[in-house]
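hey so i finally got around to running both of the ones u sent me last week. sorry it took forever, my laptop kept dying halfway thru and i had to restart like 3 times lol. anyway pasting them below in the order u listed, first the sequence line then the structure token line for each. didnt double check formatting much so if smth looks off just lmk and ill redo it

first one:
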Amino acid sequence: MVTLLNREWYQTIARRRSRRLYEARPVAPATLEQLDRFCREFKPFPEARAVLVSAPGEELFRGILGHYGKIKGAPAFIAFMGQVESPYLYERVGYLGEGVILEATCLGLGTCWVGGFFRPEVAARLVGARPGEKVVAVTPVGYAAGRWSAEEKLMTGFGRNHWRKPLAELVTGLDQSYWPNWVKVALEAARLAPSAVNRQPWRFEVGKNTITVAVDNLHDTYNIPKRLDCGIAMLHLDLGALAVGVTGTWEFLPPPRVARFAL
């Protein structure tokens, strides 16, 4: 079982982009096998898992997917799922899924978080979901096209979707002048996390040797739980801290808070 984080993911955070247009060729077998093995072994939480399907999944990505646009040409996809009864299903699936997506990026593959505009019943059938499991999100996987389609440019606002709110709008608690270096690096990594339609719902409270993640409000939008986005930010926060030699543990919290990272 792989639970340790890949240090290369930290460098991958800044360059990864969501891609919807893929080359019409299969993923190299060795690369696909490596990614499949990682999906099976990376289990930061026992109730969440990722399943790679080496098939295009036309049923899954057919037509317009809301604000996400069309997924075209991907030869495979990954489903992220977890036990419905888990009280922290969404944040744990978000954390797991972002690890898988960053690993795929390190392997030279394109991906795109799709959390609200896919067919979950189709995904569950294709991956063989177990009783009590829910497919929360999926990503296409393949070699991203060298050029950006007009539709991709429209969906990303010609790069504006990678814009992020400044930390001053996101952080409360300990005054920034007292932050140790690991807090600064961890928060900068967390603010770069992807989120549904770039809504950036996470908020952070800095304490003495702690960072608490919360949602901006309890109103989910685009049919995607905000706690899924916050789980993605949690992984980024972990990676930022790890990049400067700091590790900690997570304590999950009731809404509107999500979890607390503590040295």
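and the second one:
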Amino acid sequence: MRALAASRRRRSINLPPVIRYATPDDVPSILRLIRELASYERALHEVKATEEQLRERLFGDDPKVFAHVVEHDGRVVGFAMWFLTFSTWNGTHGIYLEDLFVEPDVRGHGYGKALLTELTRIADDRGYERVEWAVLTWNKPAIGFYESLGARPQDEWMVYRLTGDALTKAARS
């Protein structure tokens, strides 16, 4: 029955995607999608975010992170969460795409591309010179998707991260 419903949903997608800024009412859907993404990335156990945290970070007095959602038949089926960066060399802001996720049963219909295109429009309209993100090396479908849009890996850069005990130790040294 589930496969039949998914098949019907796939066939019914023929309208352009509805991309919009997220609202506080979208927070439960965004958290659900974050959990789906984490599960796909084999890291569901690492999700600590709560609806309250997302609501405050996205819609509080001074938000530093932003989100767009994509709707299908009035239901949120994907999201892009992002924040501003700054290039000292270019002297301009950029967008860092923290997460982009579209439910598996509606992939292949342009929803991910529409979300990413919206971010590129924002960057272009505001004079930002880049949109960047990280992707897991084993995620070949995502890599293929990004490269099909013209994105290229930045192989000369390696990501470093301080977290947990190492962060605490560094902060107190």
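quick thing i noticed on the 2nd:
Strands lie at 18-21, 66-72, 75-87, 92-102, 131-133.
anyway thats it, ttyl
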